[in-house]
Specification:
This protein is mostly helical. Helix content is 70%, strand content 5%.
């Protein structure tokens, strides 16, 4: 029997595995393009320092990539084990991007990773650079297809419910591929990964400079990370604003909870900078506001209202009432599928079918739902406000701190004095965890803010869960936490080990790099030159 406790534990299990997995993914996304930049400079100049930079940071990338793959595999299996009705209901749509990701992106990525590490002495410099570029493309393609699937969960377009199969079926592939929510989420997420990779390189390079070791190596790494990081954090902020606009159109509930907007404000709505949130009385005790800001962010206009939580809840209550009719008509249609008049009536209300299914949490027979049950279901459509409000603001605050760090770092890079600024280097080291915290909070806002839906407005989380024993979920959750914690410890151990070794881990001893030398062409280079 599916209980609320079973649903909560299944959600917790998936959340834990996703958050663990997302510790590794942003660094993979970010570092791979830094490797492309470093190796491109090496191919262009032939200086050994740039090859050493590519190989050294590539080694740290490889450690992270291996563990990221390991933590990600189990997540897809959970759709079948813990979310079987979800898989049955939307598998035709949700499964397609994941299958393409495996066949196209992951195979490309994993193949190129192997060539990256084992092809240094077998490929020419240009050939190896092509491998690195393809590795980066594969990594980002992997993120693209996964986020297309996730974007459809947030904004389900290009699909229709088939009452005969009781499944959502794809009707417009292009609408799914070019879903604005998915595209915004993709660019925003990969840009956040670029920030993670940039700050990782920046922080470790700053540590080397503070310790006066591998100075020339660290200087070049710091310069690349500062420039790439500034471009990336600017992209995150700009695209974060675009994501806010798309959320305002597709998920008004999420936007209202992120901003703690209990009441519909006259347009243009103000932005709540900080607030004292009173969940029990459903109001803010006090708030500090920026006039007009939320209206501009959420609607790109001065005259469009953003609905508040109370108005959204009332609208959802009406949709739940209509959803009761939709569920009843669906049951009749299943018995007489050729009744065209009945089908026409169902088509009028089928968009609210998911809202009717929200009542399954309180009664097996939706037609028997009481006004109290309807009100409870309407209350369920609003996630807790305080976690959404503060998670979003901490994420944004960290984003602007990172913007200041990258901007300052690049400024002193242009002046050529960054290595002498002890305070700047210490700031860079202290900020190392910041992009991970921001990325995890961003993922939390996106996923928690969708509740109580697995597919927004279509399929409630409560009816998506597999009918399995709670004890099984507890056992598997404990296993995942234990196994993933071991993997995280291994990652930290290996990362710290090779950070301590520095470029010396390449087998060339401590890197001085003060007089970078030209590289003797490999046999592959000579062969390419001879052919040309």
């Amino acid at each position: 029997m599916i209980t609320e406790h079973l649903v909560d534990m299944s959600r917790l299990q998936f959340a834990v595995t996703a958050l663990y997995h997302f510790l590794f993914i942003p660094l993979t996304l970010g570092m791979v393009w830094l490797l492309v930049i470093m190796e491109a400079v090496y191919v262009t100049t032939g200086l050994q320092v740039w090859k050493d930079m590519t190989r050294y940071w590539g080694k740290l990338f490889g450690i992270n990539f291996a563990l990221g793959v390991t933590t990600g595999i189990t997540m897809e299996f959970q759709f079948g084990t813990n979310w079987s009705y979800y898989s049955q209901y939307v598998g035709d749509i949700f499964g397609a991007p994941l299958a393409i990701e495996g066949l196209m992106a992951f195979f490309l990525e994993s193949t190129m990773v192997g060539l990256f590490f084992f092809g240094w002495d077998r490929l020419s410099r240009f050939q190896h650079l092509v491998v690195t570029v393809l590795m980066a493309v594969g990594t980002n393609l992997s993120a693209l297809w996964i986020l297309i699937a996730n974007g459809w969960m947030q904004s389900p377009v290009g699909a229709e419910f088939n009452y005969q199969t009781m499944r959502m079926e794809m009707v417009d592939v292009s609408a799914i591929l070019f879903n604005p929510d998915a595209q915004n989420k993709f660019v925003h997420t990969v840009s956040a990964g670029y920030v993670v990779g940039s700050l990782f390189v920046l922080s470790i390079s700053a540590l080397y400079l503070l310790r006066k070791r591998d100075v020339e190596f660290a200087k070049r790494s710091f310069q690349v990370a500062a420039a790439f990081g500034l471009a990336s954090i600017c992209s995150v902020i700009v695209l974060g604003d675009e994501s806010g606009y798309s959320v305002g159109k597709a998920q008004q509930t999420k936007l209202a909870t992120m901003e703690a907007m209990w009441h519909t404000e006259p347009a243009p709505a103000p932005f709540n900078l900080i607030a004292s949130i009173n969940e029990e009385e459903q109001k803010n005790n006090w708030e500090v506001q920026i006039p007009y800001a939320m209206g501009l962010i959420g609607t790109r206009s001065l005259d469009t209202e953003i609905p508040g939580i109370h108005d959204i809840k009332e609208l959802n209550r009406e949709r739940i009432t209509t959803g009761i009719t939709a569920v009843g008509l669906l049951e009749q249609l299943r018995e007489t599928p050729d009744d065209m008049a009945l089908r026409a009536e169902f088509d009028k209300v089928k968009d609210d079918l998911g809202f009717g299914l929200l009542l399954k949490k309180y009664t097996a027979d939706v037609s028997q739902a009481t006004p109290e049950m309807i009100q409870k279901a309407a209350d369920d459509t609003i996630p807790k406000v305080a976690p959404m409000f503060w998670s979003f603001r901490i994420m944004v605050g960290l984003g602007f701190l990172m913007l200041a760090l990258f901007l300052t770092s690049l400024w002193f890079t242009f002046k050529g004095t960054f290595a002498e600024k002890t305070w700047l280097l210490k700031w860079a080291v202290v900020m190392l965890p910041a992009p991970w915290i921001a990325a995890e909070l961003g993922w939390f806002v996106a996923e928690y803010g969708r509740q109580p839906w697995t597919i927004y407005g279509v399929l409630p989380t409560y009816v998506s869960t597999s009918n399995i024993g709670v004890a099984n979920v507890y056992l598997s959750l404990a296993g995942f936490v234990g196994f993933y914690t071991i993997l995280l410890i291994i990652e930290m151990y290996l990362m710290i080990k090779y950070v301590k070794l520095g470029p010396a881990s390449l087998g060339t001893g401590r890197y001085d790099g003060e007089t970078p030398r030209n590289v003797t062409p490999t046999a592959a280079d000579q062969e390419v030159t001879h052919v040309v």
